[in-house]
Specification:
alpha/beta; 8-stranded mixed sheet; 26% strand; single chain
Length: 390
């Protein structure tokens, strides 16, 4: 039962005990040291004691029952103390059981950590959005593969692809760069099922997929040479938490590689004013939903803020002259629906969607016109993790 237990006092009204690793005892007696530590923390705590389980990779029912007994002990010994359990959907069955504890004991609350972090996930798992992801990967890869070399990717590296989605990028990486080891991590079970099915159907080897929270990865410190997170930081409320994890799992001397869009600089001519207004409204809608589709130019700032060095910046331009215009137009068409779903999820003003649809349909006409020119800009940025520790 390799579990680590840490206690952190963060204020007079907030104390936290964190359990990490695996919590799978065969019998209750194996939980004695954990129970003892929790009870010791509860005796000295004031206000709320937070029991943080978000980094637990496995937990069985024996462990759950012992935590339940701990709650019963607190209700008797410290009736003035509140208990907050912080959970992750990495152990989905536990959420339901802890909800029952919260119903039985008014002083107990639960917080599903990654549910708050991934508010747009239901939109991203929609079948139509999956089609967008596949089309995007197809369009982007031809322009990105040379850029990846400039950002340090080469054969034989240990590579992690965080927020891997459908895993298309991993298949391209495996085919063209032959990494020593490649793992893709995503928080969407439907997308991971698709990725694993593709790997199985085509008999691909050396690609591992893991379900996990990008802000609390179950990957070891300093274990990868190249850590990628593409078109993903822009859709999270708290990208800095994910960036912290990317740095943690990267080896000193390894590189963190991120890409993000720059929708405020979408190019289209003719009808440029209508197109620009459409994307301006799209950005407004997405920001109301906690999504920043204009994060691209912030890449250098983010990587420097994370303590990285040797920052490199590149721009990927997917246009109707260097790509299949029908594919690009199809992607833009599906963005109209995605914008509507973002807006509906965020409670945005429906009138904004009229501007989005008008502008993006004008963009599609430009993309498909023999006389039109359209560009979808994406900013790629990478930084090296320093050898020194600060």
């Amino acid at each position: 039962m390799p579990v680590a237990l840490n206690m952190r006092l963060t204020g007079n009204e907030e104390q936290e005990v964190t359990l990490t690793g695996t919590l799978r005892p065969f019998v209750a007696e194996e939980m004695a040291s954990v129970r003892s530590s929790l009870e010791q923390a509860a005796r000295s705590a004031r206000g709320t004691l937070c029991v943080n389980l978000k980094r637990l990779k496995y937990m069985n029912n024996v462990a759950f029952l012992e935590l339940n007994r701990f709650v019963r002990w607190v209700a008797h010994a410290r009736p003035d103390l509140r208990i907050k359990f912080v959970l992750s959907s990495v152990i989905p069955w536990a959420i339901r059981k802890f909800q029952v504890i919260a119903e039985l004991y008014p002083a107990v609350t639960i917080e599903v950590y990654d549910k708050a972090l991934y508010p747009t996930q239901p939109v991203l798992e929609d079948d139509e959005f999956i089609n967008v992801l596949r089309m995007q990967e197809k369009l982007i890869w031809n322009h990105e593969q040379d850029i990846l070399v400039q950002h340090g990717l080469r054969p034989g590296l240990r590579v992690a692809d965080i927020c891997c989605g459908l895993g298309c990028f991993d298949i391209f990486i495996q085919r063209d760069f032959r990494p020593e080891y490649l793992v893709g991590v995503d928080h969407s079970r439907p997308l991971l099922r698709y990725a694993r099915q593709v790997v199985s159907d085509y008999g691909l080897e050396n690609i591992e997929y893991q379900y996990g929270d990008a802000a609390a990865l179950l990957l070891a410190d300093n274990s990868f040479d190249f850590v990628a997170c593409r078109l993903s930081l822009q859709i999270f409320h708290q990208p800095e938490k994910i960036l912290h994890e990317l740095v943690r799992i990267c080896r000193p001397g390894g590189r963190i590689y991120i890409t993000n869009e720059m929708l405020s600089c979408m190019v289209g001519y003719p009808n440029e004013e209508v197109i620009q207004q459409g994307y301006k409204s799209f950005l407004q809608v997405s920001r109301q939903g906690g999504v920043d589709l204009d994060m691209g130019p912030k890449g250098r700032f983010l990587l420097q803020g994370a303590g990285l060095e040797d920052i490199k910046i590149s721009q990927i331009n997917v246009s109707n002259t260097n790509s299949d215009p029908n594919d690009l137009a199809r992607v833009v068409e599906l963005w109209i629906r995605v914008a509507w779903q973002f807006g509906a999820a965020a409670g945005a003003d429906p009138s904004l969607h009229a501007d989005v649809e008008k502008g993006l349909r004008a963009h599609m006409e430009t993309i498909l016109s023999d006389r039109g020119y359209a560009v979808w800009p994406i900013i790629a940025a990478s930084g090296r993790k320093p050898f020194r520790t600060s």
